[in-house]
């Protein structure tokens, strides 16, 4: 059964509290804020993760699975948080992704071990194509 926007918003808020996610990083529901900020829609028996920038839809993912939607939301939220963390704790000469990716996996693990595992596989794939470049 597909959950309502209000139910999704409550689930997202509960998960966000686990990682102290800033409210500004969370999506809007049922309407766009534009500026490449994601919003969530529910229709056609599916959840929609939509990103609009300057009035133009840049991304639109659709899934019937709530867990998939939640992963998408927190994949983005944890990335924002991780790179903000890296910026505050930057280590000269070290690829910024080292610290950011570690933080992202920590955050995703606090939400759901399966999220951390999946994010880890995605990071591994990125690093296979674009290895760390320190120095």
Walk me through the structure.
This protein has 135 residues and is α+β, with helices and mostly antiparallel strands. It has one domain. It is built from four helices and four strands. The chain has helices spanning 5-19, 66-88, 96-111, 113-129, and strands at 28-29, 37-43, 46-53, 56-63. The chain has a four-stranded mixed β-sheet with strand order 1-2-3-4. Strand 3 (46-53) and strand 4 form a beta hairpin. Helix 2 (66-88) crosses helix 3 (96-111). It starts with a helix and ends in a 6-residue tail after the last helix.
Please outline the helices and strands.
Layout: H1 5-19, E1 28-29, E2 37-43, E3 46-53, E4 56-63, H2 66-88, H3 96-111, H4 113-129
Parallel strand pairs: 1-2
Antiparallel strand pairs: 2-3, 3-4
Helix pairs in contact: 2-3, 3-4
List keywords for this structure.
alpha+beta; 4 helices; 135 residues
Summary?
The protein is 53% helix and 19% strand. The protein has 135 residues and is α+β, with helices and mostly antiparallel strands. Strand 2 and strand 3 (46-53) form a beta hairpin.
